[in-house]
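Q: What structure does this chain adopt?
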Amino acid sequence: MARRIRVLASQLLSTSAAKADTAGAARPSSNGAAAPGSGYRQPPPEILQIVDAPPQPSLSFSPDRRLLLQLQRPPSLPPISEISRPELKLAGIRIDAEQFSRSRMGYNTSLAIVSADEMVPSTNAREITGPGGPSDPPRGPLTLWVADVATCTARPALEGRSLNTVFDSYSWVDDTTIVACCIPEGVSSPPQRPPAPLGPKVQDNTAARKSQNRTYADLLKDEVDSALFEYYGSSELVQVDVAGGGPPKVIAPTRLYTEVDASPDGEWLLVSWLERPFSYAVPCGRFPARVQLWRRDGTFVREVAALPLAEELPNKFDATRPGPRGINWRSDEDAELSWIEAQDGGDPDLEVSPRDIVFTLSAADAAAGGPPQELARTDMRCGGVAWCDGDLALLYESKWATRRSRIWTISPARRDQAPALLFDRSYEDVYNDPGSPLSRRTENGTYILAKVDGKRQLLMAGSGASPTGNRPFLDLFDLETKEATRLWQSSPPYLESTGSILSDVTNVGGV
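A:
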């Protein structure tokens, strides 16, 4: 099967807009001065040369690590025409109404294929082209494109449909199938603000509950804002076979979808969305939310979480929303969910043990009505799990008040085995930071801890902070002896750092 890459074609913007912004500006004198009334002034040439220096491209390895995708970035300073575009400030986020996206999105100006043994930027790069080339597209909703690596040509993946990327964009289900969040067909014009309010703004506190809230920017202010948020955030889920398996098919009705995530084996979908009632006091991340497990065709299987409006969380660090949080697929399993639940109601000041519990639930057990299984407990706020296999995972917990951080090793396949403490330290102590474990790509396209074959050893990369500056390093860390062997460290006068593991495909079982 031919390799493909995915491109948001409407994000391939050239830098002509940046040039146009400065084309009419007066030429600076040797000291950067401009004639009175000539508009924007420019700095001296020495400074201009630094500011306008073209940025280095970012890189992405192909799954087989033989090719690089070279993504050219726009100028470091965006043109004034870009940052002055109108935006809607709704429910704590800023929306570009023309594109149905977040405002000031990142983008690339060109894409090219390069052999992995080339120096980048490469003169032998094969640029990806599509109809019309990578020129400035007309402003409007984003479209999803697919590019063939062999021919370096791109084509639309969703004929006649545009993406809504305010919350999510698309998810690959398997090698050829995509589920995308699309602007609903036949969508009407956006709600208009009436010349005068239609009624009072009513907020209910009949329960006389006392709570403290932080102040947030860009909140909803009235029902018109709520209607606009619902209009621009709503999408319908569309499934398409990019290998030519027919036209796009709607698999779910219009909702405020925030995430659509396919299981590693491609047979299940984890779908999240927001619901009313909205709030004028907190951003959309605390609105009522629903998380469900579906089959890949959109068939409902089970509700994983139904979270109510969270307006009354404690105004403290480490406070969290009650109920399941961090619901995700395990990256080392074909189809198993994991999540965390607070046992203190989300209040870090309550003295409880455990404070958090990690649960797992396989998709097959969920379909059969089985209960979730407890995996681990923490006495501090759990920060998540880094997966490797049934024998190894890393459990993270921390406490903001003491800056304390602990990392444990656990065995997901042997849940009766007690966790083993790996690190117990202050996360502010950067000089003694052991680094973070590197990951490798699995056959399912997920990433797990890069464990050395046949051994309980991990590759750890860190910034190498020291009194003389950062010296990034790569260590081989033995989980049994807790000893680190230095494999490499950056040395002056260069500042280098580690990248991806190139052997993680040929050695599928490890490194």
